[in-house]
Design a protein that fits this description.
Chain A has 349 residues and is an alpha/beta fold. Chain A is built from 6 helices and 18 strands. Chain A has one domain. Chain B has one domain (2-248): P-loop containing nucleotide triphosphate hydrolases (Rossmann fold, 3-Layer(aba) Sandwich), CATH 3.40.50. The chains are: A alpha/beta (349), B alpha/beta (249).
């Protein structure tokens, strides 16, 4: 069996997966994914060995890290989803992932197709999810993922390929686990492909790691990343983001921002944005900041009558707000906001 | 209403106010004028209760109660309002949402009933129009991208909404052109009342052409060195601070 990474592996230095899992590993259960799909989405079970050609064409083809490779080898369940050429699906596809063990997902949007996915991770069981996403030319995927607070290990790897003009807009809201990691590997392979990633981590306790790789493989591709973290108690919030620009990929525009607010002395945030630029004419910016609430703002609000805890709560909400302001669907944005508000209620501020 | 006695204030390891005495009665408007570094902003912050401004001696009596050590929100609830020189920008909080939070926090602290969103909107609209604060400004994030004039108008709008008994205006004229200055001054003048005291802190005499004070105090090196009627502001303008400080020495 492939050895799982420990913190001695650079990319996993903030998330010692082997140690968190212990001898039991991900267990022998059969984790599953259930999709409540609106009209226009085809769904195929991956348990069935007799897979249609479009599944066989894409399944297990995207680059994988070591953990994703394990899920590919061991997963017994999962689903593949497809939206055909030029079909615009308006209602969101709701994806529920639950159970213990490994599970695989494949989503294919053909040329010109569009879809919104609302992904929910059941917090009860130790799980490893491997997700492959293929976006055809000018396809658009809006992806909102919620991972509620959990006492166990939950990891997910997303590999995504975007053809020319394709757009990926995602928001990842995580609320901590014994070890929680979302790793996304994006290849912008066609001109004018775009990826816009955002996320919030609101941690009363536990660990949440968001690791991103965005590869600008060709000219005129565009990416933005905005991640905000609020860490209380003894929690640990991690962002590792690597943007790479291939030789000759001129006209690339990439922005990367990660900020964390620490609400207790024992909380920790590790923010590591990275750039690797091998092209000449590009616009890339990155920034990271860890801190406490702004003293001027706090005084301003209190001087206008807001009690200290209320003033702090308002500033914390404000800090997080712009990270999910970009969620296109009003319903999903409200869902994220509601979940964030509930999580903040559970943190001593 | 306000009686400051022998006030000594230290910021970090530096003494800024060194025995300041000042009395402002209800219904009066007093101006504090002084050169840069004289302690004007320290005075405004210490009155509002900002952390980091340590009162090492003296008292700030407000309606007979000592404000020293009282948290800023309690002072606000009791009717102290500071219009700030540099209102802060808070992305992620709309101006309207901020006004509602502040109005309701004050209402709770003052034992009044809270207002729902519609009642707040009505109250704000009524006062916003005269200060030329647009609906669009109210929808924007608090002070974010506001011009200097817009920020100051929003400060005065808050002053009108929160109904303070003691209003302190810290360099409200800074960064304003003459039209914006007039608009702000009109807003302030409309809030003059027999129950309300105002302390107008400014470097320049210009603002006092429009907000005419009952008394003028000159602050230098942490103390009031001279006081007089509104004509003192004109004298300062004519002679300059240096001469007045010399004369007082």
């Amino acid at each position: 069996m492939t050895a799982l990474p420990t913190r001695r592996v650079e990319e996993w230095k903030y998330s010692d997966l082997a140690r968190a899992l212990g001898d039991a590993g991900f267990g022998d259960g059969a984790a599953k994914a259930v999709a409540t799909a609106p009209d226009g989405v085809e769904i195929v079970s991956l348990e069935n060995g007799n897979r249609p050609a479009w599944v066989a064409q894409h399944y297990g083809k995207l680059p994988a890290n070591v953990v994703s490779a394990v899920s590919l080898a061991k997963a017994q369940g999962g689903i593949a989803m497809r939206v055909r050429k030029n079909v615009a699906v308006v209602a969101p596809l709701v994806l529920n992932i639950s159970g213990e063990g490994h599970v695989r997902l494949l989503l294919v949007l053909e040329e010109g197709a569009s879809l919104t996915v609302s992904e929910h991770c059941d917090p009860a069981a130790t799980r490893n999810t491997g997700f492959e996403i293929v976006l055809g030319e000018n396809a658009r995927l809006d992806h909102v993922r919620l991972s509620p607070a959990s006492a166990v290990v939950q990891v997910e790897e997303i590999a995504l390929l975007a053809a020319a003009g394709a757009q990926y807009h995602s928001h990842f809201a995580s609320f901590g686990a014994k070890l929680s990691r979302l790793e996304i590997m994006i290849a912008l392979e066609g001109e004018k492909a775009e990826a816009h990633l955002s996320g919030v981590s609101v941690l009363a306790t536990g660990h949440a790691d968001i690791t991103t790789h965005v590869a600008h493989k060709i000219k005129d591709t565009h990416s933005t990343q905005l991640f905000k973290k609020v860490a209380g108690g003894k929690s640990r919030a991690i962002y590792q983001g690597k943007v790479s620009v291939a030789p000759g990929a001129d006209g690339v525009d990439s922005r990367q921002t990660a900020k964390a607010l620490l609400l207790s002395r024992e909380a920790e945030a590790d923010l590591k944005p990275e750039l690797e630029i091998l092209a000449d004419d590009v616009k890339c910016a990155h920034g990271a900041a860890v801190g406490d609430l702004d003293a001027d703002s706090l005084f301003y609000l209190r001087a206008r009558g807001l009690p200290e805890t209320e003033a702090r709560a308002l500033l914390i909400h404000a800090f997080l707000e712009d990270a999910f302001a970009g969620v296109a669907s009003d319903d999903l944005r409200e869902m994220v906001r509601g979940t964030v508000n509930n999580a903040l209620d559970g943190i001593a501020i | 209403m306000l009686e400051i006695k022998n006030l000594h204030v230290r910021v970090g390891d530096k003494d800024i106010l060194k025995g300041l005495n000042l009395t402002v009665g209800a219904g009066q408007v007093h101006a504090i004028m002084g050169p840069n570094g004289s302690g004007k902003s320290t005075l405004s912050y210490v009155l509002a209760g900002r952390a980091g401004y340590d009162v090492t001696d003296g008292a700030i009596l407000y309606n007979g109660e000592n404000l020293v050590g009282m948290p800023p929100e309690e002072r606000a609830a009791k009717g102290v309002f500071l219009a700030m020189q540099y209102p802060v920008e808070i992305p992620g909080v709309t101006t309207m949402m901020f006004l509602k939070s502040a109005l309701n926090a004050l209402a709770r602290a003052r034992g009044q009933s809270e207002m729902d969103a519609i009642a707040v909107l009505k109250a704000v609209r009524k006062k916003a129009a005269t200060l030329n604060v647009s609906e669009e400004m109210l929808k924007r994030a608090l002070n974010v991208g506001f011009s200097g004039g817009e920020k100051k108008r929003l400060e005065i709008l808050q002053m009108a909404l929160f109904e303070p008994k003691l209003a302190i205006l810290d360099e409200t004229d800074s960064g304003l052109d003459i039209d914006a200055l007039k608009l702000v001054a009109e807003g302030v003048n409309s809030l003059r009342s027999p129950e309300r005291a105002m302390l107008v802190i400014t470097h320049y005499q210009r603002l006092l052409d429009y907000i005419v004070p009952d008394r003028v105090h000159v602050l230098s090196n942490g103390r009031i060195i001279k006081e007089g009627g509104k004509e003192l502001a004109l004298e300062l303008e004519a002679k300059g601070y240096e001469q007045i400080v010399k004369d007082a020495a």
